[in-house]
Amino acid sequence: xxxxxxxxxxxxxxxxxxxxxxxxxxxxxxxxxxIQIISTLxxxxxxSIPASDIVPExxxxxxxxxxxxQKLQG
Amino acid sequence: MKKVIITVLAAxxxxxxxxxxxxxxxCEMPIKNRxxxxxxxxxxxxxxxxxxxxxxxxxxxxxxxxxxxxRVYDISxxxxxxxxxxxxxxxxxxxxxxxxxxxVFELGPMMITQKVxxxxxxxxxxxxxxxxxxxxxxxxxxxxTDLPMMYExxxxxxxxxxITFPVTEPFYGTRxxxxxxxxxxxxxxxxxxxxxxxxxxxxxxxxxxxxxxVDIIRKCRNDGQSFIFVESPCYYRLQEDPTFxxxxxxxxxxxxxxxxxYISASDVDFDTHNADYFEDMNHxxxxxxxxxxxxxxxxxxxxxxxxxxxx
Amino acid sequence: MxxxxxxxxxxxxxxxxxxxxxxEKHQWKILLxxxxxxxxxxxxxxxxxxxxxxxxxxxxxxxxxxxxxxLTIAINLGLLIIFKYSVNLGVHDLIAPLGISFYTFxxxxxxxxxxxxxxxxxxxxxxxxxxxxxxxxxxQGPIGTYQDMQDQLTAYHPFDLQKIKTGAYRIIxxxxxxxxxxxxxAFYIDTVYSSPKGYGGLTLIVATLFYLVxxxxxxxxxxxxxxxxxxxxxxxxxxNFRRPYFSKSIPEYxxxxxxxxxxxxxxxxxxxxxxxxxxxxxxxxLSRFFPKAKKGTLRLIVPxxxxxxxxxxxxxxxxxYLGWGIYFAFIMLVSFCTQxxxxxxxxxxxxxxxxxxxxxxxxxxxxxFLSFGEIIYRSERFxxxxxxFKNIFTDTRINGAEIAAAMTPFxxxxxxxxxxxxxxxxxxxQFIVELMxxxxxxxxxxxRYIYAFAMLVVIALFxxxxxxxxxYQAF
Lengths: 74, 311, 475
Hints:
The structure holds three protein chains of three kinds. By secondary structure, chain A is an all-alpha fold.
């Protein structure tokens, strides 16, 4: 989880990934950020995120992203 | 719900008041240096021009002033509408007893191809309520009118001018003198005039405008009013255009059929090939208008007084 | 039926009466009948095509397998392409069915979401038909999603006078923007852009800025009317605009302008493209040429180009639209690729994004880039585009003669100055309203009766009653 937050900070160092629960809903992350995040997750965890999983629920918080990664890692 | 009704009602009252005021009193607004009201306040005149922007640009008033001791005026925003010219004549007769030695109407060949329309809100603005109704009536009879146009005619036209009057009037007032432009307009140069594209080949005769010419002649005869039609020269390229020529012939045919006197552009010594004389195809530069006016005065003075009286 | 017309007013009165008289079970049916009637009034023969789309999509996507999804795309996209680009295919005078660009996108969005298992396929053909044909959003959007619309459309909406009043107020705002601001400024732009070579730089700049005003007033005004109408029926449509001209960057602008269209492209074209295998391959290839670039950035390149080209041609089959799409593709790419570099640079020069001058600079810069794009979009001929840019950069002078010349497109000298003053007052008033709302969404929500009064008077006395050109309707 800490590793994940470090990766996220690499994309946007001005965002409070530890606590924020509304990254998408409050438009904190832009679609540009999301793509960066997806690519990073793709490479780091060797997963492929299908378009159908790119929904607000999966990206609203660091926990949600972590859950998505775990799901895709099998 | 009550608030809604009050809001709508209040808006309605304000709108109706503004519209009524504009329609009845616009002709009384103190407009300087142009317009029917200013023309009337000039009293009896030796020469009165009634035409379109062509007359606005191509007549040099200071020179006319000198030739006729200041008893001249130029009503020049008919916007190419002969129908409007006819109504403006009525308006003058209705609103004053001033006498005009000679009224000069515009012989604009393309004017008889103009669809009857609102081309210049100043026309409406200048008219009294009776005049406004009369003009609408003639537009209506010519066909071509619809509800949006009627709305624009009676409600919105001239509202801009009304609201901005205190600011715009001082500015506009200085650009005219007795209805003609005073600006020292220059020529855009021979190259521009030669290169300017225009295509009038699809223009067709609009019967209402042709009828308006006959109307004007008839009204002047009935009132014993001396008149003459004058064709203001345009840049030779337009003058030599076949469509232009065709409608010039048609206009002249109407005039000759009704024994109306006229002065063609070619009857006046003026070089239509001289690019310095023109601002665009129809309108002259300051230099052009001065050259033309000098010659026009000469020709006008050689015209027989009055014209063929009604039988 | 134009939304600003007497027949439509009668239609709405009848519809509202029937709608609120209908019981819980039948209300949505009234809406469907009303929408069908609306369609028939506008485009009677072409109703067959929207019916084909509705029925085929509904049946096919009941079983959201790949084959059916592909077939749905083929049918809907096929019809859209045939109608929109018929001229390119050599067929002239083919009128497109009303709303085809918009309902096709709604249909494809629905199909895609079914295929991705984001939503369950509709189990009621008539409910689905209502979703696609719902008349307020049919002609120019917003492009609604099944998730947003479905429950609202089929739910029961008891009569609520407050909603009627709010809707009517919204409609007044829309009519004000369209008929007064957009309508007035349209003459000027049409005059200048029909033969731009003859105008000096100052006039061209004024015309272009007016075009920005016209586009916004016309389109967002229409959206206000549409949302107001829908509000009266108790159905909330998505906002399509969020004060776009206050954007501080072009990417931000595209999150504030025609929001529903850009979100559609984002969800259904952009994001899916980014995550595909081929895009990954392309990104890998590109990373050999640009080893320092972030992988994420490289993955954006091809999808951005594709999406922007398609966005461009979605507007129509003309070269100017394609050029516009390419222009923005380029700007978006530059924006993405330089983002981290710019951040570092800004840190070095102590760039303070909260500073008011910085914000103004960013807004102005965005408007400048936007204007260039809109020149490309609006020009009627390619030679005009070149001439406009040339005149603006080489022939802009600010002196009395140029200012006077800049007013002439308003008509002859008589009304020009007056019209210019009025339009400047109106645009300034609109600008102040929007600026206040940018700072606080709730601004101007009190005293609505006074604003309504003022707008009604201005609409009546200054509105352009002539032909109303709904800019996006032809799409």
